[in-house]
Amino acid sequence: MAVTAETGRSEVSQDSGPVLPLSVLRFWPIGVPTGVRYLAEGLMNRNWQVTMSAGVFFVKQFLDIDQEQIGFQQEVTSQLAASGLPVPAAMPTVDGARLVCAAEGRFAVYPWIAGRHRRGLELTAGQCGELGGLLGGVHRALGDLLPPVPEAAWKPAADPASTGELIETLVGRLPPPRSRDAFDERAARVLVERRTMLAELADRRPPDGRARAGGHVHGDFHALNLLYDDAGTVAAVLDWDRLTAGPLAAEVVRAATLLFGFGDERGLDLERAGRFVAGYQRASPLPVEDLAGAVWRLWWERLHDFWMLEWRYLRGDRSCDHLFPGAAALVVWWTRYYEQVLKVLAQG
């Protein structure tokens, strides 16, 4: 199904999905639109590929961060792009602004970057190391651009009692047994399993504290925020909406688990994950104790994490149901092979 929007000069067909208000495009010196395609990837914002008389561009509507954070992100990414890193920079309007705030929302325009996403499991050993080195380079560049982060506190560890209450809430929201579908049945099994695991592992809660190495981080470094060219080189690191400060090791370990997970009972591809961390360590070495602390804390966080079930049963949003089976299987696998994961990811 297509919808048609008036531009004042012509009609432009838009694919099904949220409609881009074409009037906002007049603020950029990019001509008139001739085609619009909504990009369904991503959970938080709205994105379109727009063909204009001056070329092809990427349009982003910000939905979940405030204007101050958008301005900070755009300034930092512009400087990262100027330093030579593969980071898209927002294009200036005719008045020199990078953000347009209209009645329809807040919009930015970026050059269109050709490329495709690749799963971490598609990468060669060398590419895994190069990707880790790229993240290390990003962290170094952010450290050069932004003030030091002396108080790199670890994220507070989840409380098993509070998680137990959440489990009971979710169990109470499950449909009656005779009305459950396959997802409901899996959710019920996982909730019971996790209740038992929390009781058995309660004494492994990590303490509060600080990492030795802190700085600014991308905040969401994973496969859908990376574009590769035909040669397998990263062409763009996308989506800087979670740019923040914290322990550098936390981003390295989280990225490794997001990039190199099998999505089933096999857990993580530890060989690729190890190559990634080794590449990072060559580019920007971190203390081993920071990496070990990040492994411990992320494992504990995942043990207590039910956000996909919260979306489905508390918010009525099923858009992330497909992520749940792999996430649930990873917790069990990681708990069973904790020492192996620690050895691979906490590299000196």
Spatial order of the strands forming the largest sheet:
3-4-5-7-6
CATH superfamily of the largest domain: Aminoglycoside phosphotransferase (APH), C-terminal lobe
CATH architecture of the largest domain, by name, is: Alpha-Beta Complex
Number of helices: 10
Under CATH at level 1, the class of the largest domain stands as Alpha Beta
- Indicate the radius of gyration in whole angstroms: 22 Å
The profile of the biggest β sheet is:
5 strands, antiparallel
Instruction: State the domain count.
Output: 2
Low-confidence stretches: 1-10
In one word, what is the shape?
A: globular
Indicate the CATH topology of the largest domain: Aminoglycoside 3'-phosphotransferase, Chain: A, domain 2
- Element order, helices and strands? EEEEEHEEHHHEEEEHHHHHH
**Ends: how far apart?**
54 Å
The secondary structure category is: alpha+beta
Report a brief summary of the structure.
By secondary structure, the chain is an alpha+beta fold. It is built from ten helices and eleven strands.
